[in-house]
Amino acid sequence: MIDVKQLKYFVTIAEEGQITKAAQKLHIAQPPLSQQLKQLEEELGVPLFDRKAKKMELTAPGKAFYEKAKRLLAQLDDAVAEVKEIEAGTAGTLSIGCVKSCFYYLAQAIRHFHEQAPNVTFHLREGDTFSVCRLLQERQIDIGIVRLPIDSADYDVIHLPSDRYIAVLPEHWALSKPYLSMRDFADWPLLLLHRVHGAGQYERVMEECRRHGFEPNVLCECPDATILLSLVAQGLGATIVPQSTVALFRLPGIKVLEIIDSSMTAEAAVILDPQRYLPKSARRFLDVLQTVSARTSGG
């Protein structure tokens, strides 16, 4: 009868592509691992790997079995986690992926949650919205915090308070007024946030510029807000970012101004995998995050 250990061995071999590498990852000797794979194939009555190639490649039956085995192991992990967390929620590790322009909400929530549950540790991952969505799909994080829009059909979405866009300019740029209009950006090089994949804040700002009758001069596109702010501080150009981004990453050499004729808002949200068990600690953290976010926004 096939057991969990054989499934784990098989999945590891499939992902590593070599018995040797799989054995190293599993911390076992190579011969017993090869024997376990042989027994599994005999049990199933089909070859799972093509051994002619330098790298062990899955056969057609092997590919089908890999997908099922990986799903079964994930479900088993969820079941074990759920049992352990039923009476807990105050310990363990909480994995969170966050877009850097949303760190303002996250940093405050972690501080408040740590006061309530000091034994919970955090594993934080940073990336643009596309990257955070992928981390959630690959089960590397429990919670994702992203900027909208996204394809919400794949996730449970909890909306966070919206965030106004503001202008950030080099401090030494001389201005005749303490605020800006969108048309002011027509004469300046722009540094804009841009996702690695998909549409987001970049497209929103571009559309707003065109709505005001000009095609912006985009000098730089980057998914990292802190890099953009650093470039602004060096005098390379201006940027338009969510207000909370500057609140957390306020660098020397920049100045922040309101854009009086733009109603652009940045929408943020928590995303969850609807097919995955959410640990009690994660559910408690979400309560704190929503409370802190509402308080910060004045809601």
Shape: elongated
CATH class of the largest domain: Alpha Beta
Number of individual domains:
2
* CATH fold-level topology of the largest domain: D-Maltodextrin-Binding Protein, domain 2
**Residue share in helix:** 40-55%
Integer-rounded radius of gyration: 25 Å
The number of helical elements comes to: 10
* Quaternary structure state of the chains depicted: single chain
Main beta-sheet annotation:
6 strands, mixed
CATH architecture of the largest domain: 3-Layer(aba) Sandwich
Number of strands: 13
- β-strand percent reads 15-25%
Please write the string of helix (H) and strand (E) elements: HHHEEHEHEHEEEEHEHEHEEEH
Low-confidence stretches: none
Q: What structural class do you assign from the helix and strand content?
A: alpha/beta
Distance between the termini: 57 Å
Mean of residue pLDDT values: 89
GO molecular function: DNA binding; DNA-binding transcription factor activity
Keywords: DNA-binding, Transcription, Transcription regulation
Organism: Geobacillus thermocatenulatus
Family: Belongs to the LysR transcriptional regulatory family.
3D structure, described in words:
The structure is a single chain. With 299 residues, the chain is an alpha/beta fold. The chain is 43% helix and 21% strand. The chain folds into 2 domains: 82 residues, Arc Repressor Mutant, subunit A; 177 residues, D-Maltodextrin-Binding Protein, domain 2. The termini are far apart.
